[in-house]
Design a protein that fits this description.
- The protein is an alpha/beta fold.
- Helices cover 35% and strands 17% of the residues.
- It has 14 helices and 16 strands.
- Helix 3 packs across helix 4 and helix 6 (132-140) runs parallel beside helix 8.
């Protein structure tokens, strides 16, 4: 569907044209009519599908048509400061040719930031994008009903992540400050039981949309290497030396390993920065701007980078450490192949992580190519998954359906070359 088939207001259409926004994504095509119809909505779609625009477009369109300035009509709750800033930037871009205003409300700063954000809310921004903790602080410091007496929309973006971070009660506390008559929109990449519980608590007969729950985008080329811990650095060097990727994210499991690997890659001559919750908020914002503008071409980070980081054109994601579960795997590799582009995701799997990797492997329907390290790295380890899982993709290779074995010598037929960047459409 062409986005202009939705008959949007002229000023919003002008903003979409300036953004070169033409074709609606599947989640936008399905969600926008439901939101316009006034129904509560539960939408489950994987990362990178355009779900932010799916709720912002109809919300902004209605605000423009009603032309009521200085009243907060929409509250968007998000799990992180980074996502709050990105959603706020999306509002600004979409509403550039309108008079709609927005404010991002998040913690991490000093008292000056708190007062600035509270004053902005006092002035009546039409869209408030907030993390739960900071918003509660502002609401409790003000009279009840001060900010949201005209509210029409409550939007929970990345609701699963908010619940994972322990914000369930905070969300209910915020709702106690809102009018009972409102439209509730819940967007989530996964649909665990706690999301269902929250929906029952706050929604009224919601419509549901589900698109490819917890599955990686089809255009991500996924591969995994069985490695010993001491082989990981050398394998990473080999993979990167044989490619021409211009935008790379490397995920580590801990802040200390993130800092250590970031320093190592910087010594190797890469334009790189480390990214974790230990980095000050202002520095994190600067790093993201540099990464978006390609002043940096590599980020080494924890799972804080896995959600809510909206950067187009990321070509390669490397899981230097295996993520904790299948959902985190999907969110990590979902940083690439956004907006229907191609992307590559490479995962390092140590022997101790094989059982955990087996669950991820099954979850993505065995669409991960199982590789052995090149001979120059050292002794190779084979993937040997549980026999009960069966052969991958109908292939009968016995190396893919038995338990993990120890080191063995490389054989010529098992040598795998690093993936090539040739022919990538988003380079």
């Amino acid at each position: 569907m062409n986005i202009h088939d939705l008959n949007l207001s002229p000023s919003l259409s002008e903003g979409l044209d300036a953004m070169r926004f033409e074709k609606a994504t599947p989640i936008q095509e399905q969600a926008i009519p439901v939101i316009r119809g006034g129904k509560d909505l539960i939408a489950c779609a994987q990362t990178g599908t355009g779900k932010t625009a799916a709720y912002l477009i109809p919300v902004i369109d209605k605000m423009v048509r009603e032309n009521k300035r200085g009243q907060t009509k929409a509250l968007v709750l998000v799990p992180t400061r980074e996502l709050a800033l990105q959603v706020d930037q999306s509002v600004e871009a979409l509403s550039y040719f309108t008079e709609i205003g927005s404010i991002a409300v998040f913690g991490g700063g000093d008292g000056v930031d708190f007062e600035r954000q509270r004053r902005a809310m006092d002035n009546g921004a039409e869209v408030v994008v907030a993390t739960p903790g900071r918003l509660i602080s502002i609401l409790k410091a003000s009279s009840k009903g001060k900010y949201f007496s005209h509210l029409e929309y409550l939007i929970l973006d990345e609701a699963d992540r908010m619940l994972d971070m322990g914000f369930h009660q905070d969300i209910l506390t915020i709702i106690s400050f809102l009018p009972n008559e409102r439209q509730n929109l819940l967007f989530s990449a996964t649909m665990p039981p706690n999301i269902r519980k929250l929906a029952k608590e706050i929604m009224h007969n919601p419509s549901e949309i589900s698109l490819s729950i917890a599955k990686p985008a089809e255009k991500i080329k996924q591969s995994a290497y069985a490695v010993l811990p001491e082989q990981k650095d050398k394998l990473l060097d080999t993979l990167l030396s044989n490619t021409q990727y211009q935008s790379i994210i490397i995920f580590c499991s801990t802040k200390s390993s993130t800092s250590k690997l970031g320093s190592r890659m910087k010594k190797k001559g890469y334009s790189v920065a480390s990214f974790s919750s230990d980095i000050e908020q202002g520095d994190r914002e600067r790093i993201m701007l540099d990464f978006k503008s390609r002043m940096l071409n590599m980020l080494v980070g924890t799972d804080i980078l896995a959600r809510g980081i909206d950067v187009d054109g990321i070509e390669l994601v490397v899981n230097y450490d295996l993520p904790s579960d299948a959902d985190d795997y999907v969110h990590r590799i979902g940083r690439t192949a956004r907006a229907e582009r191609d992307g590559t995701a490479i995962t390092f799997v140590e022997p101790r992580d094989m059982r955990k990797f087996s669950r991820i492997y099954d979850m993505v329907d065995k669409r991960i190519a199982l590789e052995t390290v090149p001979s120059e790295i050292g002794e190779a380890i084979e993937f040997r998954l549980d026999e009960k899982r069966g052969p991958s993709n109908g292939k009968s290779s016995s190396s893919n359906n038995r338990r993990f074995s120890g080191p063995k010598s490389n054989r010529s037929q098992n040598k795998k070359r690093p993936p090539s960047a040739d022919g990538r459409s988003n380079s």
